[in-house]
Amino acid sequence: MEKHIDLNTILQAEATEAATLLSNHVRHCARAAVLNMIQEEVELLCGASYNPSSESPCFRAGSAPSSIYIEGKRTSVRRPRVRELTEDGTREVTIKTLQAARDPHEWENMVHRAILCGVSGRDQARLQAHELKGMTKSNISRLWAQRAGTLIREMNETDLSDFQMIALMLDGLSLSHELHVIVALGIDTEGHKRVLGYTVGASESYEVSKDLLSSLVRRGLAAATGTPLVVLDGADALRKAVLEFWPDAPIQRCLVHKERNLRGYLSRKHHGRLRLFFSELRKAQGEEAALEILKKMEDWIGGINAQALVSLQEARGDMIAWFRLGGPATLNQTFLSTNHIENSMRNLRKHLGRVKRWRPETDMASRWVASGLWIAQRGFRRVRGYRDLPVLAKKLQARHAVCQEEA
């Protein structure tokens, strides 16, 4: 009956009040569930309260104040005490369910999550004042550094031999004039995305890009199809590094980046027409249709701006690499742009926006990048059209076989 009344109250409340009531209701239910589990363990040890076990050496010994963690918040409870008969007298018995529910690591995880989600050390006391009692900003910062160090190892040292990569995306981000980060994101044969690793360097150079890919290969990364589909934003350094490890990889130029680049050459009145051309190109069904649209775009741009035409022709081959491969049209939206890694980089930029001054002489940048990518990765979903990835896999395997024969 109490549950029914609580739910009615929630339904009748205003939106903001309903959210609070719902949260409290969920916490109440979780608290009751944990206490029931604790009581069940006590009964297993001692028997029912109305019929204690005569064979068990354990017996009830009253209760004492304690606390448990529910959704990262400490909640006060009365813990049942159990003692056990021994040769020397009696001793306290640890109730494992209670011990798990009041694990201090859960508190650390709560603080860690709060910091990683953008809450500063200075604001921590305002989150859960009763939980952070006695914790200074320095202690919280040390906890943050410790956990971020763990994330660095997870991002850049985890074995990748079990990841069946079918596509690879690389992108760079400038942190300051002397710090740049390059991130690698992979898509497996079932459409799952994963941050494979990152590297921090003084620039987005070939050497830094090569070091990143070398690290991935050393950790066991390999394309499930012999060679992966690679989608880049057009950076020459990234392209050169990719071809160092996968010489026959089809490299698709991000159409979003190329359209943005061409807009820089054209006056504003031509931007609408350019957008229509790229929209048609993204919907093209096969190489022949893509070439036809590209030819029309070249004819139009050639009569407007010579430099824009040179820029378009320079990227011509990479702009239709996906269509030349013969990938299914249902995956056009997935592989004709670097949107998947761009979304991760957008979340990373938001996370790094809290940093006011970078210290290149420390691992500060690596810690912040690792934590930002960790947050971004938590929201990953399968790519659109993942059911047609087996078709792409066959295309890539056939291409790889042909390249191997020609070599």
How is this structure best described in words?
It is built from 18 helices and eleven strands. Strands 6, 7, 8, 9, 10 and 11 form a six-stranded mixed beta sheet that branches. Strands 3-4-5 form a three-stranded antiparallel beta sheet. Strands 1-2 form a two-stranded antiparallel sheet. It is an alpha/beta fold. It starts with a helix and ends with a helix. Mean pLDDT is 83; it is low at 1-5 and 122-127. Helix 10 (271-282) packs antiparallel against helix 11.
Q: Which strand-content bin applies to the residues?
A: 15-25%
The class by helix and strand makeup works out as alpha/beta
| Uncertain residue segments | 1-5, 122-127
The helix-strand sequence is HHEEEEEHHHHEEEHEEHEHHHHHHHHHH
Q: Per CATH, which architecture of the domain at 155-254 and 338-406? A: 2-Layer Sandwich
The amount of helix comes to: 40-55%
Overall 3D shape = elongated
Gap between N and C termini: 76 Å
State mean pLDDT (0 to 100 scale). Answer: 83
CATH topology of the domain at 155-254 and 338-406: Nucleotidyltransferase, domain 5
Number of strands: 11
**Count of alpha and pi helical runs:** 18
CATH superfamily of the domain at 155-254 and 338-406: Ribonuclease H-like superfamily/Ribonuclease H
